[in-house]
Sequence to fold (169 residues):
Amino acid sequence: MRRIEYVSRILLEVRHILGNDEFKIRLNDFDSRLILQKTIYLAQTIFGIDLGYSFGWYIYGPYSPDLTYEAFRYPEVFDSIFEEKIELEDISDIKTKIYGLAKFLRECISATEISLPLLLEFVTSVIYRAKTYGRTLNDAWEEVFRIKPKFEKYRNDLRPLLKIIARYV
Fold:
């Protein structure tokens, strides 16, 4: 199985667990591609689902060019017809990790009113800055507000996320 097929299966599971269609990936939509990138970043970085994607720092936070390349090379894996053929036994070895990912996402989504793409950009940016540059979560948190001033207006709404992130990182 290609790793992009695992990506599709992970997103399908998360979508079903959360009952949130924003995890249905539409490659022609920027926010949807951002959700794809950030969800897989979290799956690898926090929940140990090793898909082998490398992430670097880009304007919207952690980003993997290889993930984007594969998504556009094999767009059929995100089609509903393909998803209907998914057998969850194929991912039984990582299912517990996917449930952990969905639980984390549910907690983050419930803690704030901002849109899912902004939420994921912020959360993954904090985690990336902490893990990649050896910052404390508090320092990474403040750094993200400095380098991404668009989040400053959401500071109070985002505050509960720091405790949630700390429980998982």
Notes: The chain has nine helices and two strands. The chain has a mean pLDDT of 92.
